[in-house]
Specification:
Blueprint (H helix, E strand, L loop, with lengths): L1 H25 L8 H19 L11 H15 L1 H9 L4 H21 L10 E2 L6 E2 L3 E2 H19 L1 H11 L1 H6 L4 H25 L6 E2 L6 H11 L4 H20 L11 H4 L3 H16 L20
Antiparallel strand pairs: 1-4, 2-3
Helix pairs in contact: 1-6, 1-9, 1-10, 1-11, 2-3, 2-5, 2-9, 2-10, 3-9, 4-5, 4-9, 6-7, 10-11, 10-13, 11-13
C-alpha cells in the first residue's frame, strides 16, 4: 500500500507543477499547449546532468537532485522563450507555436535518450537518483509544489502585481492604457510557465514515476495537466482538487496490481486501464456541464495589438 501512496503523491507533485505552469501562462493571456514539450526538456536536462554526476549506481550523489531539478527549471524557462517570441512579439498563432515546441522537444528527447551519448543503455538515460521523502511516503517535491501553489494564490489574490498580471489576460488594452507593458508581463508569464513545466519534468525523473530513468518522453503528463487546468476552471483550489483526483485514478490504472488485497486475476486488475481513461472522461463531462459558467481569461490566446486600443 505504501508503494501505491508514494506513486500517487509523486504524481500529485508532478501534475500540480505542470497544471500551475499552464495557469500562470493563460492568466496573462498566452495559451501554452507546449507544456508537454517543456516538461520533456526539463526531464532531459535532469537526465543529462544527473547521468554526468552519477556515473554508476555505486557512486550516487542523491542530494544533488535538488539543485539539478532547479537548474533544469531555469533552463527550461529560457527554452520557453522559443514559444514567447513568436506568440507575443510576432503575434503568431499560439497553438501552432506550442505544437512546434512539443515536436522539437520530443525529437531532442528521443535523440539523446537513444544515442548512447549519456550512458550505454541505448534506450534510456539513467541518473541513478532515488526519491527523497519526508517521512516515508511524502516526496520532498510535493511539499515544494504545494508551497508554490499557496504562493501563487496569495500573489493573485492579495498583491497589486498579481492583480495587474491577471488583468493582462482579461483586458490587455486597459492595462496598456494605464501605461503598463502587456508584453513584459506576458514574457514573464511564459518564462515562469517554462520554469514550472521544467520542474515538473525534472521531478518525474527523481520520483518513483520514472525511477531515475529518462526514455525520451514524459508520458503525456503535460497534456493531462492541461486537462486538469480546464477541469479546475483556472482556479488554483479547484486545480489542486483535480490533481488529487487525477493522480489517484491514474495510479489505480498503473498500480492496481500492486495492492495486496486485490486477488490476482481479479476483473479490477484486468480492467484497470479504465482508470486511466476516467480522468479525461471526468474532464469532458465537467466541460459540458459547466460550459455556460466556465470562463477562461477573456484575452486568452488573443495576440495583443497596441493599435487596437
Amino acid at each position: 500500500m505504501s508503494g501505491f501512496a508514494q506513486y500517487t503523491l509523486a504524481l500529485c507533485a508532478i501534475l500540480l507543477l505542470a497544471s500551475l505552469a499552464g495557469l500562470v501562462c493563460e492568466k496573462a493571456g498566452v495559451v501554452n499547449i507546449g507544456i508537454e514539450g517543456m516538461m520533456t526538456i526539463g526531464a532531459l536536462i535532469v537526465a543529462m546532468i544527473g547521468s554526468s554526476i552519477n556515473k554508476d549506481s555505486s557512486h550516487v550523489h542523491n542530494g544533488s537532485q535538488i539543485w539539478v531539478v532547479l537548474v533544469a527549471g531555469l533552463l527550461t524557462g529560457i527554452f520557453a522563450m522559443l514559444h514567447a517570441f513568436p506568440s507575443i512579439t510576432l503575434r503568431s498563432n499560439q497553438i501552432i507555436s506550442g505544437t512546434a515546441i512539443n515536436i522539437l522537444a520530443l525529437g531532442l528527447g528521443m535523440f539523446f535518450a537513444t544515442s548512447r551519448i549519456f550512458g550505454d543503455q541505448g534506450s534510456v538515460i539513467s541518473t541513478f537518483y532515488n526519491p527523497i521523502y519526508i517521512g516515508s511516503i511524502i516526496p520532498i517535491w510535493l511539499v515544494f509544489a504545494v508551497l508554490i501553489a499557496i504562493g501563487l494564490t496569495v500573489f493573485f489574490k492579495l498583491s497589486k502585481q498579481g492583480m495587474r498580471y491577471a488583468m493582462v489576460g482579461e483586458n490587455p488594452n486597459a492595462v496598456d492604457a494605464a501605461g503598463i507593458s502587456v508584453n513584459k508581463y506576458r514574457y514573464i508569464a511564459v518564462f515562469c510557465s517554462g520554469v514550472l513545466a521544467g520542474l515538473a519534468g525534472g521531478v518525474m525523473i527523481t520520483t518513483v514515476v520514472m525511477g531515475g530513468n529518462f526514455g525520451g518522453t514524459t508520458m503525456g503528463m503535460g497534456f493531462l495537466a492541461m486537462a486538469i487546468m480546464i477541469f479546475g476552471q483556472w482556479k488554483i483550489h479547484w486545480i489542486s482538487l483535480g490533481v488529487i483526483i487525477f493522480a489517484f485514478l491514474f495510479t489505480l490504472g498503473s498500480r492496481l496490481g500492486t495492492l495486496s488485497f486485490i486477488p490476482e486475476g481479479s476483473w479490477l486488475i484486468t480492467g484497470s486501464t479504465i482508470f486511466k481513461v476516467l480522468p479525461f472522461v471526468i474532464t469532458i463531462a465537467t466541460m459540458v456541464i459547466f460550459s455556460k459558467s466556465s470562463r477562461a481569461p477573456a484575452a486568452n490566446g488573443i495576440p495583443f495589438d497596441k493599435s487596437k486600443r
